[in-house]
Task: inverse folding
């Protein structure tokens, strides 16, 4: 894999995935909390009661994966008990071995990152595969990441594409973005700008900020689609409003130069200031706008639209 492609994929990162509550916390209480006293109590914030009920269930059935997972979750969150990541992972491992897919994902992700336990890629693969076998989207994505890293050897693009496709079918934005990058660079798949654009669009629609920026650039340049500067400006603005510094910088350029949008130096200066405050300095834009960049800002030459 080229250095630029590795940098692009590093932006996906397991840290981003683990920080996503939508993927990292897949365990959900039943629709009717009364059906499950333990999860019902957890939903109501009655954590001591939730722990007691879960412990009763485990005493009756040591392989009750849902109860084991809940106990792990309580320790992981410090809810009703002292926060104890090590103990949480012990419960997650027990739950995973009993067939709990969310616990398998949590334990595998921790083993992969070394967060709360010694890093162990073999264990990570084992438990992530347990979760992926039960269609856990986060596990599929991490296995795709592992296939790209491939223990420092040449990336296994075929395996990565397979896992990313499975996760993307479940609307995992990180995997959709990964597929877009693979199609853009022709890695593991035939290079195809139209496919890259389609996957960027899906990822952007699912809220992936980096994909929004790439999608906007593709629309501005007509890469894989018809050129649409005005539509690109709308996308840059959406990502900029979400706090993406690159989008703020690109939007400032377009406003300053009147490309795809009516020229507006005042608004351009405002977005340039936001990008600079986030650490993305652009001396050329500063000169155009007559702005003085703080000496602490990091200089990063922006890509051309």
Result:
């Amino acid at each position: 894999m080229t250095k630029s492609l590795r940098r692009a994929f590093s932006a996906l990162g397991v840290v981003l995935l683990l920080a996503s509550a939508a993927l990292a916390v897949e365990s959900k209480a039943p629709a009717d909390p009364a059906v499950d006293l333990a999860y019902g109590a957890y939903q109501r914030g009655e954590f001591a009661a939730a722990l007691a009920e879960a412990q009763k269930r485990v005493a009756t059935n040591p392989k009750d994966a849902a109860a084991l997972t809940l106990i792990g979750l309580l320790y992981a969150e410090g809810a009703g008990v002292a926060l104890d990541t090590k103990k949480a992972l012990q419960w997650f491992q027990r739950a995973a071995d009993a067939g709990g897919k969310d616990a398998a994902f949590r334990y595998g992700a921790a083993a992969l990152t070394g967060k709360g336990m010694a890093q162990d890629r073999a264990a990570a693969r084992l438990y992530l595969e347990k979760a992926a076998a039960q269609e856990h989207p986060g596990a599929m994505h991490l296995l795709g990441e592992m296939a790209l890293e491939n223990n420092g050897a040449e990336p296994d693009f075929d395996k990565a594409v397979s896992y990313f496709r499975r996760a993307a079918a479940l609307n995992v934005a990180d995997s959709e973005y990964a597929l877009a990058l693979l199609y853009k660079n022709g890695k593991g798949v035939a290079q195809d700008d139209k496919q890259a654009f389609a996957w960027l669009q899906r990822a952007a629609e699912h809220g992936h900020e980096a994909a929004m920026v790439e999608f906007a650039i593709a629309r501005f340049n007509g890469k894989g689609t018809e050129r649409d500067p005005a539509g690109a400006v709308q996308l840059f603005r959406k990502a900029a409003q979400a706090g993406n510094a690159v989008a703020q910088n690109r939007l400032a350029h377009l406003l300053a130069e009147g490309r795809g949008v009516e020229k507006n130096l005042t608004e351009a200066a405002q977005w340039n200031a936001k990008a600079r405050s986030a650490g993305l300095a652009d001396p050329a834009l500063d000169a155009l706008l007559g702005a003085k960049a703080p000496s602490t800002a990091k200089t990063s030459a922006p890509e051309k639209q």
